[in-house]
Design brief:
Blueprint lengths: L5 H21 L15 H26 L5 H40 L14 H8 L2 H11 L7 H26 L5 H4 L3 H31 L5 H11 L2
Length: 241
């Protein structure tokens, strides 16, 4: 039996993301006043994705609780749709984007922090907030993966969706550069056009790798547990009616 119910963990994680986003938006940073604001940074987009994902998880928990013992087939159908959306978000956005942000940020930071997080930012962003944006994302999403089984889409469609997200963000950063003349990340300022193309290609490949790692990890966790707890509760409930 878990020490802390998964429903409580999800609420706590959701509240932590609300706190992180509110503190980040309250920062008086020059970058927030330029074209695109916070939305030009993948870190902020990822925070919004994680908050939306865990918000959906909490909504499903509440819906399951409120419909428990009911006999409405319409409620069951709506609950199944929410669960399907939750599983899709985990597979295509929450895990691959979250893992990508953590991995790429700390890899570049340890190599040369000026490439991705200049020391000047320490004057604006406290250490706890930096870790909230770039560290705790991964353990939070792994906790969710460990407590609830998620059904992944077919690998072909899943990878296609992840690629669309990655290419979409690349096009967005190029547009921001077109408008402002400044790249979102310092590393992009220091490399040639050809190297930039290679960089974008490698980053897109990386996020696809993280999609597959998420699928493998999800299957590994639940092939060793014996029961698909999160899905089983809903299936049992539905079968009773």
């Amino acid at each position: 039996m878990a020490l802390i119910p998964s429903q409580v963990l999800r609420v706590a994680i959701l509240l932590s993301y609300f706190s992180i986003i509110c503190h980040y938006k309250a920062l008086d940073m020059p970058a927030h006043q330029t074209y695109g604001g916070s939305w030009k940074f993948l870190t902020f987009i990822d925070l919004v994705i994680q908050a939306m994902f865990f918000g959906l998880c909490v909504l499903i928990d509440l819906s399951s609780l409120l419909t428990k013992g009911g006999d409405s087939r319409e409620q069951e159908r709506q609950l199944r749709k929410l669960i399907g959306l939750r599983d899709w978000m985990m597979a295509v956005l929450a895990f691959p984007v979250g893992a990508f942000v953590v991995f790429t940020f700390w890899t570049l930071y340890l190599y040369d922090r000026e490439l991705v997080y200049p020391k000047l930012l320490d004057n604006f962003i406290p250490q706890w907030l930096n870790h909230g944006m770039h560290t705790t994302v991964l353990p939070f999403i792994i906790i969710e993966m460990r407590t609830t089984h998620h059904r992944y889409p077919s690998r072909q469609w899943g990878l296609a969706a992840v690629c669309c997200f990655g290419i979409g963000y690349i096009l967005w950063t190029c547009w921001v550069h077109q408008v402002t003349g400044v790249w979102v990340y310092p590393v992009l300022e220091r490399i040639s056009h050809l190297a930039r193309l290679v960089f974008f290609t490698v980053m897109t490949a990386f996020i696809c790798v993280f999609y597959q790692l998420g699928e493998i990890l999800n299957n590994y966790i639940w092939s060793h547990t014996g029961t698909h707890t999160g899905q089983r509760r809903v299936i049992v409930y539905i079968n009773k009616h």
